[in-house]
Amino acid sequence: MADPRVDEKTGRYLPIIHDIEKPYWEAAKQHRLVLQKCGHCGHVRYPIGPLCSECLSDEASWEEMSGAGVVHNYVIYHKGWTDYLKAKTPYAVVQVELAEGPRLTTNILGLPASEVRIGMPVKVVFEDVTGTITLVQFSVQVQEATQ
Fold it and tell me: Which branch of life, at top level (predicted)?
């Protein structure tokens, strides 16, 4: 029996979208990164949830993030669990710390797993996987030379 979480056309695992997360995924389709910001203490929160992890307020608005961050941590996988992932091995799963504070678990596109480094500056990019799902991913942020 096929895994219902795997897209038949792409072989990719697709997210299960819960009602509370819909603004995040709708913004991603528009190539925008939005997260919840607490209306009481201003904490930008991730994972998405009904209460602020800092003050427990249920007040929140969806705010656009800068998309800038750094690699906080990563792991390199040498085994793929689907045909899609088998073709990508070895691949890195990274935890990116956004400039606004939250950490997102994601991938870095266009960079071999062996070149991922902690502290590496990255920027958000969007990968349109299906007609309805766009994934928030990252790419290496090129540092501008100072003269």
Answer: Bacteria
